């Protein structure tokens, strides 16, 4: 076995939300012998070589293929892997077509997620979803978790906080408009708000503003 095979995989987490990045980092804490995390800002070079860029889809526009293509093409990582929901079949196909080497489901337990990263580094076209009967794992952390929001509710609120309409949220997340409305209703009850302007203000006050310029918005400037 070569030295490269023995060393931990150098993985960069690509996300606009620091709380999401830190949540994933905690998931990997027990796997330091297999994964070593390196911080990555999308528009800036990292200080050392990176094996895999793990692109978290939280709060992102799934239809923005150009954003993913830029990450693939910018040379910061040998391999790019997308981290999203396991039921997004259309988005999985788009991600692989845009150059991602693999797609890993957010519902994967940490050990399976690490194994998926290792596999995606070795081969292309890898799609890893949770095994039947394993249940839903805890996908790290997300804004609004302490207030009772689920990961899906939180993502919808994040996009609303960024000024997206219901239709834009549906398109960005590959959800139906009825699903988006359902998530909004349940989220609003937990947030204690009734109007969209109240929801945006609540979001800004509870960590739903991205820590760095939002990737999709940055591409428009």
TrEMBL record:
<keyword id="KW-0597">Phosphoprotein</keyword>
<dbReference type="InterPro" id="IPR011006">
    <property type="entry name" value="CheY-like_superfamily"/>
</dbReference>
<dbReference type="InterPro" id="IPR000792">
    <property type="entry name" value="Tscrpt_reg_LuxR_C"/>
</dbReference>
<protein>
    <submittedName>
        <fullName>LuxR family two component transcriptional regulator</fullName>
    </submittedName>
</protein>
<dbReference type="InterPro" id="IPR016032">
    <property type="entry name" value="Sig_transdc_resp-reg_C-effctor"/>
</dbReference>
<keyword id="KW-0238">DNA-binding</keyword>
<dbReference type="InterPro" id="IPR039420">
    <property type="entry name" value="WalR-like"/>
</dbReference>
<dbReference type="InterPro" id="IPR036388">
    <property type="entry name" value="WH-like_DNA-bd_sf"/>
</dbReference>
<dbReference type="GO" id="GO:0006355">
    <property type="term" value="P:regulation of DNA-templated transcription"/>
</dbReference>
<dbReference type="GO" id="GO:0000160">
    <property type="term" value="P:phosphorelay signal transduction system"/>
</dbReference>
<dbReference type="GO" id="GO:0003677">
    <property type="term" value="F:DNA binding"/>
</dbReference>
<feature type="domain" description="Response regulatory">
    <location>
        <begin position="10"/>
        <end position="121"/>
    </location>
</feature>
<dbReference type="InterPro" id="IPR001789">
    <property type="entry name" value="Sig_transdc_resp-reg_receiver"/>
</dbReference>
<feature type="domain" description="HTH luxR-type">
    <location>
        <begin position="142"/>
        <end position="207"/>
    </location>
</feature>
<feature type="modified residue" description="4-aspartylphosphate">
    <location>
        <position position="56"/>
    </location>
</feature>
<dbReference type="Pfam" id="PF00196">
    <property type="entry name" value="GerE"/>
</dbReference>
